[in-house]
Design a protein that fits this description.
Three copies of one chain form a homotrimer. With 242 residues, chain A is α+β, with helices and mostly antiparallel strands. The first copy, chain A, has five helices and 14 strands. In chain A, strand 8 and strand 9 form a beta hairpin. The first copy, chain A, is elongated, with a radius of gyration of 19 Å. The interface between A and B is medium-sized, with 29 and 29 residues.
Chain lengths: 242, 242, 242
């Protein structure tokens, strides 16, 4: 399976052109849209989101990940093998948390180049072909990346900010719920919320946080929208209180 | 074929994770997004929409339907067989109109449980696997639902409200056009509109209602947006005048 | 491969129903969403967008194209063969630029009719079945279109307007970059912008135009949104200065 993690949106021409490459080069391999609305141009927050969602997928999955504000600049083009899953995309920190949390992981610089590489759409011209090659079982076309250019050792293990707001207005933090004290409360935008098991444990309109289905601490309002009701958006700081 | 009917949105991680389950458990079965923007958290209005769109699909289609504000609460998890199509999802009334309009229909409580069931994402952990099992031809994993917990006998046969606003601003009612008198006019938000055959029968900017391509009475404006121009949104009441 | 080019949106029921037809009638043929947000009800601007994106696809691709404000009126239903690619949709000018730029091209009127043709959704009932027939290798069901009813000879070869705003706020013009003088500047909404190779060649917040990955002149702002920052939307005029 190939899973897409991008900030491209589904509507425009970008996701479709990448899928056209994947269907041609790796026919029969299912392609799944995981996120098309990762934090736009924001590899750091995207990295915490990706690391929370990727391990749920089966071993062998290839993640084609494009959050690439530096396309056309000097950032390396990489793929990462981590716990028997593959990640293809820009080496701008996007895979930092996947690597850090993996039992074993290696980064490679992509050594393959297409006949024609556009300046602005490496997702289509470079990364999608490499993802297809790996998914169909070719020898991954790379050499070990020596200088850790894709790593970001200064980023925290968990990130006390909102990293994603979903379709329902629920606000995901970059904090793994399992790393928080059992009775921890979260404070954001001047509001303190307590932990609940899930939505139906709270009264309508009540705000709370809970461990979402991929392990992140997420702030929500039962039958409401946490983003609008509490003033949360990607980048809002979160504080932890016990 | 498996058709998705949810309020999850296409962008977020929810639809993608469900599709990952379906591709793994029912490989080769086409998966089609019917609605990803069913009325959010609103099984009643969603039920009229689903009942209008499902019969168009061929026999044997499995509908994976998640509009589930009560996830984690006591509502039953069900599947319904109705006129040789299958419906999998929460037993919160979502299948009431499909059942009521079917020649033959039965409800079953899902008896299968996954190894790990998250509190908030039964679509991925419970309903998608069951949809995949049915689509690949397994014995459907359920027992007859005895207490009619999924039925809503008090809901009307046709619903005089806006139940969906589409990408163009057209406002679908929960009324089947075939149940309305031939010369019926519809009134909503203080405006009365007459029936037309289709858009091109009316002048630009003119409001009308027509039988849409799945049989619902839909209010539209030629070359305009009925939602903005007439003040219509999901939940707006509609009155029928002759 | 079948590529979809529509103004239907991905969320609603329209794209999904067309895909259901395609999967049933041409099983195993990959279906890719190219644009679901082509300029709404606007065949002219859509025509310049389609002509820029279609040639990137491999020969043999079938484009199912629905931007059809006149559905239900007298516009012909057509398919076009142009440079060994196929285009199916309304003959309202949507294929004018594809035809004009092709080495060889012919238009055909669709001679096939479904058992039941809705007044408002020819995409599902007429065009998708014909696209499926062509994609699976049937004899294309048409007769030569004699009267040039689908042509628009008065439209310019390149169109000095914004024809699409993407997910990032970048504003595509209907101008091919290769047709502009090397040092050309573009002026729109009272702002003059110079050419750059790509985003990373400009300072953050700076506006410029560049040749996008499909050859169109596109106005963008590094780390910003050209639509909001410069006041650009579909239909904004663009002037060329040297």
């Amino acid at each position: 399976m190939i899973a897409l993690f991008t900030d491209f949106g589904l509507n425009g021409p970008y996701t479709g052109q990448m899928k056209a490459v994947l269907h041609q080069m790796a026919p029969g391999v299912p392609v799944v849209d995981l996120f098309a609305d990762a934090p736009a141009g924001d590899p750091k927050r995207s990295a915490y989101l990706l690391a929370a969602y990727a391990p749920w997928f089966p071993e062998g999955t290839v993640f084609l990940c494009i959050v690439d504000p530096g396309v056309g600049s000097a950032r390396p083009a990489v793929f990462v093998e981590a716990d028997r899953r593959w990640y293809v995309g820009p080496g701008n920190g996007l895979f930092e948390l996947v690597r850090r949390r993996a039992g074993s992981a290696s980064s490679f610089e992509i050594s393959w180049r297409p006949e024609r590489l556009s300046a602005s759409f490496h997702g289509r011209d470079l990364f999608a072909p490499v993802a297809a090659m790996i998914a169909r079982g070719d020898e991954p076309p790379g050499r070990p990346l020596g200088d850790d250019a894709d790593r970001r050792p200064d980023w925290p293990d968990d990130f006390a900010e909102i990293v994603y707001v979903d379709h329902f207005g629920n606000a995901m933090t970059g904090l793994r719920a399992s790393m928080l004290p059992p009775g921890a409360r979260l404070s954001a935008s001047g509001r303190m919320v307590e932990r609940a098991r899930t939505f139906s444990d709270r009264a309508k309109g009540e705000a709370f946080w809970y461990e979402n289905s991929n392990g992140l601490a997420e702030i929500a309002v039962n039958s409401g929208r946490a983003d609008g009701d509490l003033g949360l958006s990607v980048g809002t700081s979160v504080a932890i209180a016990s």
